[in-house]
Amino acid sequence: MQPYSLDLRTRVLAALRQPGSRQAAVAERFSVSVGFLKNLLRHERETGSLAPKPASGGRARYLDATAQAWLVAYVEQQPDAT
Known about the structure:
CATH architecture of the domain at 1-52: Orthogonal Bundle
Low-confidence stretches: none
CATH superfamily of the domain at 1-52: Winged helix-like DNA-binding domain superfamily/Winged helix DNA-binding domain
CATH topology of the domain at 1-52: Arc Repressor Mutant, subunit A
Structural class: mainly alpha
Strand content: under 5%
Distance between the termini: 30 Å
Number of helices: 4
CATH class of the domain at 1-52: Mainly Alpha
Number of strands: 0
Order of helices and strands: HHHH
Mean pLDDT: 92
């Protein structure tokens, strides 16, 4: 899932800072969740930026190189094993 654009984040924050604005109304207006608004406000407060956090890089490999090589060789020898 792609992060929300910086433009949308900026517009959402500007709408939240309008006097009398409510989070639920802003969330509905921009089709985002109230949780996103809360996370955006916290992220801006902690980092001073609206830019999304960098991707975490995903899950680490389950098999090391030796086990991976063994598995590939095994499946090549016995393709019905999968």
